[in-house]
Amino acid sequence: MAQRKSYLKLLILLFCMLLVFAARPVRGALTADVLGTITGTVTAAEDNALLNHVQMCAFQYDGADYGFAAIPFYCDATDVNGIYTIPLPPGTYRVWALPVDRLRRFYNNADRYGDGDPVVVTADTVTSGIDFSLPLAGVIAGHIYRDDGVTPMVGITIRTQTSGYVGCSGADGSYELMLPSGTYVIIADGYSLCDQDAIFPGQYYNGSMLGQIPVTPITVTVGERIENINFVRMPDEFLPPSLYSPSGAVMQTAVSFEWEPVRFAAGYQLRIAQLDGTFETELSYEPNVCNENERRCSVNDILLPNGSYQWWMRAWRPTFGYSPWSSPVDFQVTAHLESPLQSSPFGLISNLNPTYTWGTVAYATWYYLWVADENGHVLDHWYAAVDICNAALCSVVPTETLTSGDYQWWLQAWSSYSGYSTWSAAENFTVMFFTPPTQTAPSGLVDSAPQLQWQDMSGSSWWQVWVGDSHGNGGGTWYPADSICAGGICSVAPLLNVSGDAYTWWVQTWNAVAGYSAWSAGLTFWLPLHTPTALEPLGVIADDTPTFHFSGDSRVTWYYLWLSGDSGHVLDQWYNAFDICTGGMCEVTPLTLAEGNYHWWVQPYSPYDGYGSWSGQHDFTIDLF
């Protein structure tokens, strides 16, 4: 590292000397018989074209002293044929080509003094073939200014962080670096080797001090010229930032802070304190919170409880540490949360577990949901915003299942910074009758004409009851809900004359908002089968093929006839009611009988009721005379 610095200092010194003497050849005041000569040809690397007017210099340097007079140098320029000739005393030299638009090179194609091949010169001898092939360069150029950003600084060293390319700023603060294609970190250096007019602390391009990050590398290609890579010297005095806002009343809990950037600041520290001592914090920020073009730094959305505050700001740089704190600025947070704005449910819905949605309230951390029906409170719950909200909407599905009817719901927001919001306006919705009513009785076999019963439904205004028999007779009747329902049960007596038949019944409800419900499922009931009445034969008859007559029941599908005589069993036979019965009367002529005494009975049957009761015993006697 010490040797590298030595080379760097030497290059800078040589370059500055050349700025003074490069306009003319320099020769030692010696006689020809004690001089030797170095000569060679200079060409372009890309096409071997001869280069004229290229300044060529030879340096005799042993590293013992950095003084100006301690480095003998001798220069000449190439002629139209690209040839240079330098007379000089015997010794060992480094030869340097200094073109104005190409890379400067030491012999043999070296960037740095120490890497160049030495050239030995003896008296009265021509050392030829010290040729150069010079490549084109890219140019990085800019200016160096004092801390006011306007006054130029003269003689400040400009160099690349690696590769040893150096330059000095001129009288107007300008500089140029000729470089091969590549990416470079450019440094304005603190070395005092360019006759600089003031001490310049080492800085990277972008204002960072040496050893500090981030740095801003510059990429250049051959033939390209990059301008305005400027440096501004850091000020000796490190002043605190000027504060812009907040100041006075702030009507929100998320507070933004703005201040003027400090030149070359590598960071900022913000201090906020509540005047009653209940809250104080210090926050640090990188310089990327600042917009240098707008001369403004800002940080947003620092959440603060309602109260009175002061704030301060200070800047930081590695070379100076922290600036003093700025003067404090007072402000007061007097924020209130907005009332939540509901989205759904509203109007007519068909979901017994609806999703409640509403717009997110800025900075709210909890929400309180309240739901009521026409009888009052139904549910209320607190919900954490982090669990139910995104950037725009909050949504939740309570566990409670609603019934059909009319509802209202409200919301309230809360945060630890602003407390409670006002309640939202009431939002109304109605759960429609999307489920059919539920009947309870009667169903199946009943002993007598029954009361029809079913479960009441919230919101019902009217009920329609429809009853029909197995022959399609019947119809519907409407009843006001408040006249037939109590305690969650509705009950009516069917208007249809219920007798020996099977009956099916349905119910349906209605109100002015939800309209009609679906019909309930049909329930079927029936009374016991009528016991048949045996009519004839009866008494003494003169017919040996008698016809048996008995009363019929429309629900009966089969009849069982039993006949016995003096000697016992004569006949038992099933008859299809559809074959033997008409208009409530049944008749059948089963067989021819002999004279004698007989007894008979009949029994009904249907799939609904099963077996009915036997008729009473009827007796007859056949006497043919």
What do these coordinates show?
By secondary structure, the chain is mainly beta. It has 6 domains: 2-134, Carboxypeptidase-like, regulatory domain (Immunoglobulin-like); 138-232, Immunoglobulin-like (Sandwich), CATH 2.60.40; 243-333, Immunoglobulins (Immunoglobulin-like); 342-431, Distorted Sandwich (Coagulation Factor XIII, Chain A, domain 1); 439-526, Immunoglobulin-like (Sandwich), CATH 2.60.40.10; 534-622, Immunoglobulin-like (Sandwich), CATH 2.60.40. Helices cover 5% and strands 45% of the residues. The protein contains 4 helices and 58 strands. The strands form 13 sheets. Strands 21, 23, 24, 27, 28 and 29 form a 6-stranded mixed beta sheet that branches. A hairpin with a 3-residue loop joins strand 56 (596-606) and strand 57 (610-611). It is elongated. It starts with a helix and ends with a strand.
Attribute tags:
single chain, 625 residues, mainly beta, Immunoglobulin-like, 6 domains, six-stranded mixed beta sheet, 4 helices, 5% helix, elongated
The total count of strands amounts to 58
Oligomer: single chain
Provide the helix percentage: under 10%
- Which regions have little confidence, pLDDT < 50, spanning 5+ residues? 1-10, 16-30, 64-70
Task: Kindly report the average pLDDT value.
Answer: 84
Principal-axes geometry comes out as elongated
